[in-house]
């Protein structure tokens, strides 16, 4: 249990947080500084520093945005598990055999349904190939998800 993080302990991925992000931040700052020193010149140095600056800034932005992508992907997995658990608790049957007939977006929409209407909505989504918006439109007991990242 000593290696378990506490509730308030931030999680770090060393390669991401302590190598790539700092390196790209430093490279971005340095290349911006160097480009500003030669900006306006129509020289090889000016084009080189502009290119390096653009690549560094875009790479830094992509790396920061990947964090959000990872969080959303993980949250989708958690929602799938939540719907599985709720379906099992309500019906006493596993949702897994039916999951292959549902898209991830349908499952994400089903999470808003109340327990009483969940089994019927799962069947309707499979039978009628309902779009996520159609699933949400049929929900009578809507449970909002205020914890979405």
From TrEMBL:
Membrane-traversing stretches: 12-32, 48-66
Matches recorded under InterPro entries: DUF6526 (IPR045385)
Pfam family, one: DUF6526
Record key words, sorted: Membrane, Transmembrane, Transmembrane helix
Name of the protein described by the UniProt record: Uncharacterized protein
